């Protein structure tokens, strides 16, 4: 090992998270047909809206839709490097999940997170509970997904 300074990528500790701040997660993620078909079949979701191009063409949106669970998982995933990498103890729950507009093959998903509430854990010293809202938008700025999420975070270790 060299004597050079080392920086390890991590998320933010409880004290570093601020309510009301918009955390913008980059880069975006362009959705592909392969993503959709693999995720949909891997999770045993046989919904024709994700798999059958000919049938989906006759439906209201005129094409296949990205699996909404893939959209949700990607929104959460896009926040990891900036917020939770190595600083989360556990995900406690999710709620208020909505998909107000579909995401299609070729769309790019951009996600941002707002911390809406935080408090120290009364039963777990050294940890805090954080509630945040993830909002996913396509390349045109249209909201395609929204979810609230509550997680248990580590407090910043004392050096």
From TrEMBL:
CDD domains: FkbR2 (cd03451)
InterPro entries linked: HotDog_dom_sf (IPR029069), MaoC-like_dom (IPR002539), MCH/BMMD (IPR052342)
Coiled coil: none
Superkingdom of origin: Bacteria
Residues in MaoC-like domain copies: 21-135
One Pfam family, short name: MaoC_dehydratas
Extent of the signal sequence: none
Membership in a protein family: Belongs to the enoyl-CoA hydratase/isomerase family.
Protein name: MaoC family dehydratase
Organism: Arthrobacter cryoconiti
